[in-house]
Amino acid sequence: MSGPGAAAQAPLAGSLVGVTTLAGVPHTSRTIDLDGPAHYVDYGGPDGAPMLIGVHGLGGSHLNWAAVAPHLVERSRLVAVDLLGHGHTPTAGRTAHVDGHVDLLTRFAADVSDRPVILMGNSLGGLVAALTASAAPDRVAGLILIDPALPFERLGMVHPRVLTNFVVCAVPGVGERYLSVRRGRTTAERTVRRVLGATCVDPGRVPADVVDAHVALTAAVDRAAADRAYLASARSLSWVMTRSGPTIAKIAALDLPVLHLHGAKDMLVPVAAARRMAEGRTNWHLDVARDIGHAPMLETPVWTALRIDEWLDRDGAPAWARAGGSVDPAPFPR
Q1: Shortest CA distance to 277 belongs to which of 7, 75, 39?
Q2: Count of domains in the chain?
Q3: pLDDT digit string (tens) for 13-50?
Q4: C-alpha to C-alpha distance for 195 and 57, rounded to whole angstroms
């Protein structure tokens, strides 16, 4: 079954056939001033094309979009921002909580484009993208949510592993000690592989150069500062999840096209929650990838790009047009 608000049955999404990445290819890295430095990468795309803004998840960075970027820039302009305390964006006196990330993204979208944009967020980035669309509807033409960490009404849907992690991080002093000990015992490479093991069904599907780029970035940044931002973001996310009423109301009131891509084997945000979120929403299209986890754009970039392309041709066409695209977008090369 497919269509707006329905969960489409998708083919197996694990092939890396034809995948090329940008992880090892020079791209444009920029920093702008948004009451402090805000780093982003411009992955390119046709001049004048509608802009997609990639928004990573908790502990992620602009590199989370490196595998899917070559496929998206055939028809769209793609930039990927680092949220507060992530990647190359320092907190610099700002607070890395959900509201702080929303403020950064709202201002970033206005700074990099004079037209409405399409926000593309994974996990925490999906929540930040949705709240940005609620806060600045004139700046956002559409949403692409990839395994978004959206609040839902029943905590029973949360995986026990996620609950345990958030409980540990939420306790003052305990979270700091836990991350400090883990940081002292774990290399950058082990850190990246641990995260991929938690977010992917098969981490071996992630292109090797993308993995290497994540390891290099993790080794280069101030890991203690990154852990502080992680804790601030995780604690803020826990607050949103446990006091979900206002956020659920904001998401329910969104009046724009939404594409929701979700891994069927996501341990962090269960697919049952995704299906409940899509129920009864005429402007919300859900596509589920079989045998895929929390980060389809890394684990199955071709499937991810194809689903985005199909949405831009169909249910997402109004978003594409509002973002400055032609009525009939150029077809994705297959």
Answers
A1: 7
A2: 1
A3: 433 334 456 766 668 899 999 999 999 999 999 999 99
A4: 12
How far is the CA of 52 from the CAs of 45, 65, 162, 280, in angstroms? 10, 11, 29, 26
- Residue 128: give its domain's CATH number: 3.40.50.1820
Residue of 301, 295, 331, 305 whose CA lies nearest to 23: 301
Amino acid residing at 215: V
pLDDT (average), residues 222-241: 92
- Alpha helices by DSSP H, listed for 62-207, are 69-72, 98-112, 124-135, 160-170, 174-185, 188-199
Question: What are the beta bridge partners of residue 6?
Answer: none
Confidence (pTM): 0.89
Q: Which domain holds residue 218?
A: 7-322
* 241 domain residue, yes or no: yes
User: Residue 331: inside a domain, yes or no?
Assistant: no
Cα diameter, the chain: 55
Q: What pLDDT, in 10s, does the model give residues 320-331?
A: 999 997 655 444
Q: What residue has token string 């090369």?
A: 333
Asked whether residue 72 is assigned to any structural domain, the reply reads yes
Rounded distance between C-alpha atoms, residue 299 and residue 311, angstroms: 20
Cα separation, 18 vs 9, whole angstroms: 23
- Euclidean distance between CA atoms 58 and 60, whole angstroms: 5
Question: Which DSSP string do the residues of 134-145 spell out, in sequence order?
Answer: HH-TTTEEEEEE
Residue 169 lies in a domain: yes
